[in-house]
Amino acid sequence: MALVFRTLLLDIQSFLFLSLKRMLAAAFTLMLMCAPAYAATVLILGDSLSAGYGMPENQGWVQLLRNELPQHTIVNGSVSGETTAGGLRRLPSLLTSSQPDIVVIELGGNDGLRGFPPNQLKSNLTKIITLAEEQGAKVLLTEIMVPPNYGPRYSKMFTEVYHQLADEYAINLVPFFMQDIAADKSLMQRDGIHPNEQAQDKITQWMLPWITQAIDE
């Protein structure tokens, strides 16, 4: 009888131990599910391509990006007509006010349209990258290409600046999101420079994986 009682007691203890183990595992899983996800702040430092030129702001790609990433804060620090020099001047206050985890740099198009020297472009972008990184932000650099108005040599030197900076600072370089859009007149505004409303979702889907990757790194 004592042996049977002892066996029964051991079975009960084993059952209680397994039950407690399962309960703890379930509670831990529930805690993980309920824990708040990492919420990043992403600053878009850009020009008219990111400012939603020629359309309501809520139809631009940055707003569509907000819709895709509602758990994160997307700050649009883009201004139509902005140059790299203008972005550099505005960046300190934007870093202070938004405290971004990631800075997406989409600048340079207006420098190219005005024929600014590539070394000036590189100097300004270098300072922008340095300022952002000094504040502890990751940097995502968007490649910019310019029309061959000033000749193929200038266009090549201009675009190479972005590849040089990506290598020198070991940052991700996003291929120019306008490359395919600019070739499709149905996606462009009448000025032939700015994307229209139909192009905004395409830009969003182009940028989304790069930004989510930066957030998850």
UniProtKB/TrEMBL annotation:
Domain of life: Bacteria
Domain spans labelled SGNH hydrolase-type esterase: 44-200
Full protein name: Arylesterase
Record organism: Shewanella inventionis
